[in-house]
Amino acid sequence: MKAILTVQNITSDFVTTFWTPIFVAIFIAIVTYALWPRNKNDFDEAAKMPLREE
């Protein structure tokens, strides 16, 4: 059975092979940034922000 080339197939292949690894890398970078020990104080302060009375 021969594969039929359509715009949908080409687009799907492009998204799968190009954008998926990029988005995975971006996700890993965001998680790494959020869990980096140097940023702990900043995130702790941001978490307490709604509870502050000013």
Largest sheet data: none
The fraction of residues in strands falls at under 5%
Low-confidence region ranges: none
Helix content: over 70%
| DSSP summary: helix tally | 2
Q: How far from one another are the termini?
A: 70 Å
| SSE class | mainly alpha
Q: What would you call the shape?
A: elongated
Describe the structure.
The chain crosses the membrane at residues 18-36. It holds the Pfam family FixQ. With 54 residues, this protein is mainly α. It has a domain at 22-49. It contains two helices and no strands. The longest helix has 29 residues, at 7-35. It is elongated.
Helices, strands, pairings?
Blueprint: H1 7-35, H2 40-48
Keywords: Membrane, Transmembrane, Transmembrane helix
Transmembrane segments: 18-36
Organism: Bradyrhizobium ottawaense
Labels describing this entry:
elongated; 54 residues; mainly alpha; 2 helices
Question: How would you sum up this structure in a few lines?
Answer:
It comes from Bradyrhizobium ottawaense. The protein is an all-alpha fold.
